[in-house]
Design goal:
alpha/beta; single chain; 39% helix; nicotinate phosphoribosyltransferase; 17 helices; six-stranded parallel β-sheet
Length: 493
């Protein structure tokens, strides 16, 4: 996994600019964070860390890459710079929370420290992994929440925006809580449970001489019988190819009875079109009456979290939901706007080194960055989420009564006592090697489930969720205000 040219070209031009200015080896700190949650959701599940670590381990420039870069940047003729690129190995430090952790807007999901030019070059690769997988994990989580404990099956590879999006998306969806994937390569690569039965083409393949509805019904029965012969102990039939009520369902029950005579029990039926609430009731009633109360009903057909929620609210007797396009593409909000911003850079004055903490000012208040080396302290009370405190790394964790103040609306305050303070970011990569073991999807999935379980139902609801309490420490807030005042004064002179 070596994609050293997965960077925006301006990262190369900036790296060379740093080199020419003689500041490329200065220590720098970048934060990766997002400003607004996708789907108007108050949080995301942080995912993609394993991809980040594998990508960084192999991020290096060979002779072919250097030759290409020279060809597209002929103005860079400094061989010392190209030698620096050729010898590139990331020797900095990456801090991150456990993969799967719930993270809120403006909180660093990655803190990257190292030489200025090297941390700059990593911008695109880091954002690519984290933005995509965090988005899909969060989309999956919303659908799992909507399903109220009933399984969600990811089946969207054919609609994904590319092969990597299909495979990594299946991993992220599993972290978000889906029970299985239909993407076989994701199963092989990550150990995710896979599933799959039959599609409509299997039924239509037996429609050789069709002159009447009765011929179509008989052809469907032949298809079901052949499938049941091939998979007697895994027989789940798609019943909406012709007509659910008058063909698919009666034929399925006929085949199920034959299976039982042979000593097998059917798995159930899948409905992929029509009024899923109505048809699922029809199926449940007929299956129960025929003596198959344990046969499951799986629904698919362009489902999203709101359709799933409504089906559950209507009491539709659906046992599992197959979701494709709306999950694997996060169709309703198909990009997480994660950004990668400079938070601190080391300078030398009179032989003394110090950290400068510049911020980006903007007419849009949401785009004003937070300065310094930061961490996130999660405040829990009896195991439940109370709020987060973004702190400067050098600060100690809070003790005693804690007054939490909204960073923008300062009149919104609360005092917390008898709490647990958990620092989220810890080093995961240093000096050219990772510091943690390979993160399995199961491990990240468990982290996500535990992190989500700390939240209240009000935070987790799909529509108009409760705003989480995210505060800045007093020291960070004062530094932020100081940098804003300094920048304004500089702009006025």
């Amino acid at each position: 996994m070596n994609f050293p040219l997965l960077f925006d070209f301006y990262e190369l031009t900036m790296a060379y600019g740093y080199f020419r200015a003689g500041i490329h080896n200065r220590r720098a700190v970048f934060d990766l964070f997002y400003r607004r949650g996708p789907f108007d959701h108050p949080y995301v599940l942080f995912a993609g860390l394993e991809g980040v670590l594998q990508g960084i381990e192999h991020f290096r420039f060979g002779e072919d890459e250097i030759r290409y870069l020279k060809s597209v940047a002929p103005q860079i003729r400094d061989e010392e710079f190209w030698d620096l690129m050729h010898r590139f190995r990331f020797q900095g430090v990456i801090y991150a929370p456990p993969e799967g952790t719930v993270m809120f807007p403006r909180e660093p999901m990655l803190r990257v420290e190292g030489r200025l030019f090297e941390v700059q070059l990593l911008e695109t690769v880091l954002l690519t992994y984290v933005n995509h997988q965090s988005l899909i994990a969060t989309a999956a989580h919303r659908m799992v929440e909507a399903a109220s404990g009933k399984p969600i099956i990811e089946m969207g590879a054919r609609r994904a925006q590319g092969i990597d999006a299909a495979i990594d998306g299946a991993r992220a969806a599993y972290i978000g809580g889906v029970s299985k994937t239909a993407t076989t390569e994701a199963g092989r690569r990550f150990g995710i449970p896979i599933t799959g039965t039959m599609g409509h083409s299997f039924v239509l393949a037996f429609h050789d001489e069709i002159h009447s509805p009765e011929d179509a019904k008989e052809a469907e029965l032949r298809a079901f019988m052949r499938y049941a012969e091939a998979f007697p102990d895994q027989c789940l039939l798609v019943v909406d190819t012709t007509d659910v009520e008058h063909s698919g369902l009666p034929n399925a029950i006929t085949v199920f009875r034959q299976l039982r005579e042979r000593g097998y029990e059917p798995v159930g039926v899948r409905i992929d079109s029509g009024d899923l609430a109505y048809l699922s009731r029809v199926c449940r009633s007929a299956l129960d009456e025929a003596g198959f109360p344990n046969a499951v009903i799986v629904a698919s057909s362009d489902l999203n979290e709101f359709i799933i929620r409504d089906l559950i609210a209507q009491g539709a007797p659906i046992d599992a939901f197959g979701v494709g396009t709306n999950l694997i593409t996060a169709k309703s909000d198909p990009a997480l706007g994660g950004v990668y911003k400079l938070a601190a850079v080391e300078w030398e004055e009179g032989g003394t080194r110090r950290w400068s903490t510049p911020i980006k000012l903007s007419e849009n208040p949401a785009k004003v960055t937070l300065p310094g080396r930061k961490n996130v302290v999660r405040i829990l009370k009896e195991g439940r989420f109370v709020g987060d405190l973004i702190v400067l790394e050098e600060e100690e964790d809070p003790r005693g009564p804690l007054r939490m103040i909204h960073p923008e609306y300062r009149w919104k305050q609360k005092v917390v006592t008898d709490y647990e303070a958990v620092r989220l970011l810890r080093p995961v990569y240093r000096d050219g090697r990772r510091l943690i073991d390979t993160i399995s999807p199961d491990e990240a999935r468990q982290t996500a489930a535990a992190s989500v379980a700390q939240l209240s139902p009000e935070h987790r609801r799909l529509h108009m969720p409760h705003e989480p309490h995210i505060d800045l420490s007093d020291a960070l807030y004062e530094r932020w205000m100081e940098e804003i005042r300094k920048r304004r004064m500089q702009a006025q002179t």
